Amino acid sequence: MLTRILAACVGLPLLLAVVLFLPPVATAILFALACGVAAYEMLWRTGILKHRRILVYTIVAAMANVMWSWLRACSIVSEQTLWLCALLGLFVYFCALFCELLAAHTELRDEFPERTVCPVDSMGAGFGTGLLACRAAELRDEGRSAAEATAVLEQEVQNLCEFFTVSDLMFLHRTGRVQAAAALVGTVLNLKPILRGDEEGHIVTCEKVRGRARAIANLAARYETRAVHPELQRVAITHGDCPEDAQALAERIRAIAEPKELIVCPHEPFTGAHVGPGMLGLFFFGSGRA
């Protein structure tokens, strides 16, 4: 520790001298690295954080925050830097959110040692996560233990089917899902992509169809071929301010096989901002996620 302190005392003036001649982006990177080293020394060496995963995310978030703050302070307004700042801001947010979740898990475990907290990765979003939450409540009412419910939910995740389509391809373009040319051509040709959550939780395109009516029919066809015992399960349809299309899909679902419960509701705003108005999603349990 003493060696590092002496090195810092000697290196700090040199670093400041070098910084004066470096471009702002390089300076931001240097400061971020210095911040990362300092965070490591403070959090790990002192034993404040002993969970390595939390430590890594905390250090990276601190480094990203320093870079973002320095670039903003330097008033760099180029398009590349604005994108960098935006990405760093999102990265800091998600790192902080993840760290808060882990910290809450640790705090609750220490405060209520007689209770069990079992996190489950849904590998999805929207009402896909909602179906798992409803299933967890059912398992609780059946008297299952937390460990038993977790095992069931982790298996259910592998059979959770999440299919959806969008109305405006430009929303997918703005978030980097499709290229500008592809979005323009798709809009002109009235192409509607059918997207799904894959086996690793990524959103991928599985098919493209012409027109909204065919997209709705495609979603219904996937329910017909993939749903397992629909009469015993809960099915959800979410929409981005297009209730008429959602009801049209619901009528097709009921005609194919009436589920135990069919929920039709607006899509949640977090991922809704990614897919835009006109999004139409279908969530159910089938034979695998593919």
Describe the structure.
- The protein is of the alpha+beta class.
- The protein contains eleven helices and six strands.
- A six-stranded mixed beta sheet has the order 3-2-1-6-4-5, with helices on both faces.
- The longest helix has about 35 residues, at about 80-110.
- The protein is flat.
Give keywords.
290 residues, alpha+beta, six-stranded mixed β-sheet, 11 helices, 60% helix
What's the layout of helices and strands?
Elements: H1 2-19, H2 24-45, H3 52-73, H4 79-111, H5 127-141, H6 146-157, E1 160-165, H7 169-174, H8 180-188, E2 191-197, E3 203-210, H9 212-226, E4 234-239, H10 243-256, E5 261-266, H11 269-275, E6 280-285
Parallel strand pairs: 4-5
Antiparallel strand pairs: 1-2, 1-6, 2-3, 4-6
Helix pairs in contact: 2-3, 3-4, 5-6, 9-10
